[in-house]
Write a structure and sequence with these properties.
Distance between the termini: 86 Å
Strand content: over 45%
Shape: elongated
Radius of gyration: 28 Å
Number of helices: 0
Number of strands: 36
Length: 358
């Protein structure tokens, strides 16, 4: 094919055998184009614009080798395998039932979705998928509890506590803003919250937005953005591993707070009104290796807990028969909190005010 533009205007299916296309544009209009089994369509310096129905069967491949070309149109394109050998823009959603091979070039999704049936093959710094306009990679997968899997090789691995079927994962390429600062240009959105024992996120250096690699930790958004417990930050392989005990569905990488940033409230009001009734330390659930001890002004222990999880309601110790204690009197107490961070053990201590409204 050596024309400036190839028009497909048929109202019936056009079935193509393996072929090379060297025109400026392959236009599918009104009717459809179907790549039969075993077909290999090479778009050499050619864009594909679909306004009809472009589909391909199993064992077919579309090879894109077009300088500053695009793939899309007004209707989504349905492919099997897709091989990228040059920069490409999507102008419509693309369904790839098979694999997406990245030999060379950048695939810019723009504001479109790439629905991935197989895997991303050979994605790396020099040849990757990106988007500054909200485009996402979408992968649906069945998870088995306890298995560490990177579905579709899109850059997120999870070890789930339960089997989860038909979990949709979206990889986006814009930065989340947390506490007025930008994180890396990558996030993962799940179709529903899951409980994960271990979470691993991969990233590229070009996505870091100037963030220092050694500061990266995983954050999740539940009611607000929260930092997860860091297990490992592997800067050589661009991997951050975290653990979480909470049910979450949105993740990104962002500079972690240092140990000195750990916030402990100065008091609480256990009066049963549903507001500030418990001594809650934000983020403590991410550090289960902790111990909280509370003393009165005479140095007596009035509360003690290993692996504290924001449960203290202001009651003092029980009697020798094991009964529960009563609410402590209003006043100033003192806490000693020991936490095991990634960097080691650290102690926090200070005054704690108990003041009930009644």
């Amino acid at each position: 094919m050596g024309l400036d533009r190839v028009w497909v205007l048929f109202v019936f299916w056009m079935v193509l055998p393996s072929t090379n296309c060297f025109s400026q544009q392959l236009l599918v209009d009104d009717g459809g184009m179907y790549l039969d089994k075993g077909t290999f369509l090479n778009l050499k310096d050619t864009s594909l614009e679909n306004h009809g129905e472009f589909k391909s069967s199993d064992e077919t491949s579309l090879f894109f080798d077009s300088y500053e070309g695009y793939l899309g149109g007004s209707v989504q394109v349905h492919l099997n395998n897709f091989l990228l050998n040059s920069d490409c823009r999507l102008t419509a959603n693309v369904i790839a039932d098979g694999d997406v091979f990245l030999e060379q070039g950048i695939l810019d999704l723009q504001d479109n979705q790439l629905f991935l049936g197989g895997n991303l093959i050979n994605e790396r710094e020099e040849s990757r998928i990106t988007s500054l306009l909200g485009g996402e990679i979408v992968k649906t997968f069945d998870f088995l509890a306890g298995e560490s899997i990177n579905p579709g090789n899109i850059g997120i691995s999870m070890i789930l506590q339960k089997n989860v079927n038909d979990l949709e994962i979206r990889r986006g390429h814009v930065s989340a803003v947390i506490e007025g600062k930008e994180g890396i240009a990558r996030y993962f959105q799940l179709s529903r919250p899951v409980e994960s024992n271990r979470l691993t996120i991969h990233y590229f250096d070009t996505e870091r937005n100037g963030v220092e690699e050694r500061e990266l930790t995983c954050w999740t958004q539940i009611d607000k953005w929260e930092q997860l417990h860091l297990v490992r930050n592997d800067v050589l392989n661009n991997v951050v591993v975290s653990s979480t005990l909470r049910s979450s569905s949105l993740f990104t990488l962002f500079p972690g707070k240092s140990d000195s940033d750990f916030f402990i409230p100065e008091g609480f009001s256990p009066d049963g009104d549903g507001i500030n009734d418990r001594f809650e330390i934000p983020g403590i659930e991410q550090y289960p290796q902790n111990k909280l001890v509370v003393f009165n002004r005479w140095g007596d222990v009035v509360y003690e807990c290993e692996s504290y999880q924001n449960t203290w309601d202001g009651k003092g110790p029980g009697n020798f028969l094991g009964g529960r204690g009563s609410l402590l009197h209003d006043g100033t107490y003192f806490y000693l909190l020991t936490i095991k961070f990634e960097t080691g053990m650290k102690k926090f201590q200070g005054p704690l005010e108990i003041k009930k409204a009644f």
